[in-house]
Amino acid sequence: MAETLPGDYIGPLMSIWRVGLGYDIHRLAAGRRLMLGGIEIPHDRGLEGHSDADVVCHALADAILGALSLGDIGRHFPPTDSSWRDADSVELLTRVVALATSKGARVANADVTVVAEAPRLAPHADRMRERLAPVLGVATGAVSVKATTNEGLGPEGRGEAISAHAVCLLQLDHA
User: Fold this and answer.
1) CA distances (Å), 104 to each of 39, 71, 97, 147, 173, in order?
2) Those residues with Cβ within 8 angstroms of residue 102's Cβ, 6 or more apart along the chain or in another chain
3) What is the DSSP letter of 105?
4) Residue 106 burial (CB < 10 Å; 0-12/13-18/19+)?
5) Higher pLDDT, 166 or 84
6) Is 110 left (phi over 0), alpha (psi -120 to 50) or beta?
7) Tens of pLDDT along 73-87?
8) How many Å separate Cα 164 from the centre of its chain?
9) Residue 10: exposure state from Cβ atoms within 10 A (0-12, 13-18, ≥19)
10) What CA–CA distance (Å, rounded) separates 20 from 64?
11) Which residue segments constitute the domains of the chain, with CATH numbers given?
12) What's the whole-number mean pLDDT along residues 111-134?
């Protein structure tokens, strides 16, 4: 029977689950605050970008947008638009979550890995989780933030940049 039904048919009271993958990288630069996961982290440099360049929020936004086939963060908040200059990336993520909600989707959980040689990020992971959970509309236990180094390899390993990889599971309810 399933072969004869349209691809989007899900039956009464069932859910569609969608997974999205996000990635972002920004160069480190002097004279900038280091914002990661919506919190400021003490460091001698911050991330360079049109907004506050929070790679964690950007990767999460891209994961949500990707799960819904809505493009990427640059499409929704282009660097050519001066209204997003120095924008708080938590606000950008909040807008992406609102867009997802308007499409009938909600975040079920999120997992982020931040890649940086310095500063040491593990001590800040719980604060990032606590900051991101209400923005995503989930319990803190549904948000994972991990940190790793790049073992001296690539721009992260040379201390030139910080990147983040994120995956989100979205639930679309249909009655």
Assistant:
1) 29, 17, 11, 32, 7
2) none
3) E
4) middle
5) 166
6) beta
7) 989 988 888 888 888
8) 8
9) middle
10) 6
11) 13-174 (3.30.1330.50)
12) 97
**Neighbouring residues of 98: CB distance < 8 A, sequence distance ≥ 6:** none
pLDDT of residue 175: 41
Any idea how long the chain is?
A: 175
Residue corresponding to tokens 């990288």: 25
Average pLDDT of the chain to the nearest whole number: 91
Structure tokens at 7: 């691809």
Spatial CB neighbours of 41, under 8 Å, sequence gap ≥ 6: 34, 35, 119, 121, 124
Query: Exposed, middle or buried, 2 (CB in 10 Å: 0-12/13-18/19+)?
Result: exposed
Tokens found for residue 119: 């500063």
Name the region of 101 (left: φ>0; alpha: ψ -120 to 50; beta: rest).
alpha
Residue 147 DSSP SS3: strand
DSSP 30-84: ET---EETTEE---SEEE-SSS---HHHHHHHHHHHHHTT---HHHHS-TT-GGG
